[in-house]
Amino acid sequence: MNRTWGWARARSVGTSHLKTGLPCQDFALCMEMETISGSVLAAVVSDGAGTASHAEAGSRMVCTGFLRAVSNHFKSRKGIDEIREEDIFDWLDDIRERVNVFARRARIRPRDCASTLIGLLAGPESALVVHIGDGAAVVREQGTSEWVVPSWPFQGEYASTTVFITDDPMSTPSIVMLPVRLDRVAIFSDGIERLVLDHAKRTAHGPFFDRVTAPVAASEIFGHNVALSKPLREYLDSKAICDRTDDDKSLILGARR
Question: What pTM was estimated for this model as a whole?
Answer without folding.
Answer: 0.96
